[in-house]
Design a protein that fits this description.
The protein has 17 helices and 17 strands. It has a nine-stranded mixed beta sheet, with helices on both faces. Strands 1-2-6 form a three-stranded antiparallel beta sheet, covered by helices on one side. A three-stranded antiparallel beta sheet has the order 3-4-5. It is of the alpha/beta class. It starts with 5 loop residues before the first strand and ends with a helix. The protein is globular. The chain has helices at about 45-50, 60-65, 75-90, 130-140, 160-180, 195-205, 215-225, 230-245, 265-275, 300-320, 330-340, 370-380, 395-400, 400-410, 430-440, 450-470, 470-480; strands at about 5-10, 15, 20-25, 30-35, 40, 70, 100-105, 150-155, 180-190, 205-210, 250-255, 280, 280-285, 325-330, 360, 365-370, 385-390. The structure holds iron/sulfur cluster. Iron/sulfur cluster (SF4) binds near residues 424, 425, 446 and 455.
Length: about 475
Amino acid sequence: MRDRIPAATAGGRQLQFLPLRFERWDDGRVLLTNMVGEHLFVDGPEFEALSQRRLTDPALIRRLRAKHLVRLPGEQLPVDLLAVKYRTQHQRLADSTSLHLFVVTLRCEHSCAYCQVSRRNLAHTGFDMTPETARAAVSMAFRSPSPRLKFEFQGGEPLLNMPAVRLVVEEAERINGTEGRRLAFVIASNLALLDDEVLAFAQRHDVSFSTSLDGPEDLHNRNRPRPGRDSRQRTLTAVAHIREQLGHDRVSALMTTTAGSLGRVREIIDSYLENGFRHIFLRPVSPYGFARRLSRRRAYDVDAWADFYTEGMEYILELNARGVPVVETYSAIVLKKMLTNDSPGYVDLTSPAGIGIGALVYNYDGAVYASDEGRMLAESGDFTFRLGQLGQDSYADLMTSAALLDPLEESYTGSVPMCCDCAFERYCGADPVFHHTTAGDPVGRKPESAFCRRNKAVFRFLLDRYTSDPHARELFRAWAAR
Ligand code: SF4
């Protein structure tokens, strides 16, 4: 940074630019962000003065210096502070890999149209994880240097292979007797098959649950068909049992936005509140697995999702203003990145990407993937993100494989066209699997990328409300600090 371009001469003092990016707003303001994502809005004339290096307004110079966008020549403190913050934001890189996903079966008794996996019917055999594979996967998870290990069970429906879930939990606890890591266990399940035995096991081993709730009864059951057409009722009955026996916070819910959800965001949020959930993730459908084959009637574009998200967020702000606390999970993750130096470690919003270094996926057949989405691609014949095989490859083999390192390097937002100049780069992520799926390479073309457009809509909404609405500002700060 020593030989930065002079920004201006003001009051006899030379100012130098520090790395900054900008984005124009419709109302004439310009967003400036520094290299750690701290932001400042300036008006049109102020931006002209900055870009033409004619800074004369002492108040503007003070604001620019306070956000480490310019500095006095030789001034070291802003550079040191930026370096400390940048290092803090990347701290998780030394901590890899904390999330370990176990696909214990591909079988499921639901047949959700948007299902992200290529699920199999109950009667199909050969799609369950064997005890040998489960043991090898646990052993691989402990090769990671991370002091925290989260074991998440997925499917299919993981409750259909409880012997594998049990084995993984007990084996992890046994190994941890000498390892001393911080362990967490989560079963991602539709809960339709939850019984007393599973609950007792979860209680003994401190296992939590994550389930699906798409909103009102008609919408949920249409999205998530199962024999008896009673998916929602079964899920909510199981949620009540979990809360009763394990505690209220031992179960969380996720929703998926389908074409049928559009225009119904208020009802969806109300249904979360009615059922005791204070967190909702207004999640778009993903372009993987079965979901990739969604019919035209069921598909929707980014603008339709952005309207859905915006209406939902307006309602959430309104509810909070009325004293009803409710958090939109994705916004809370983004706000943590915008307003603090903490890295929430959310795999889709990190750069370098979170594949492999944030999460590893052990498939029922012993194949190891860089992400759950990479595993879903493999189910449809694309093995790009397959890192290796349990029993054949070591942890070092997986983590240094070209299937991991190439997409990590190629998709790094600090060097990708458009991202490297984008004012939102520090809030965003790389997501090479999404771009490989939709554009055929790990980078994609950002003007056509649904990932990019969707994130920009979220970043713009949050910054707009943060700067224009004192109540939203206070609420967003509280979400970021959680
Ligand atoms: S994906 Fe889009 S919003 Fe994200 S950093 Fe790249 S250009 Fe910016």
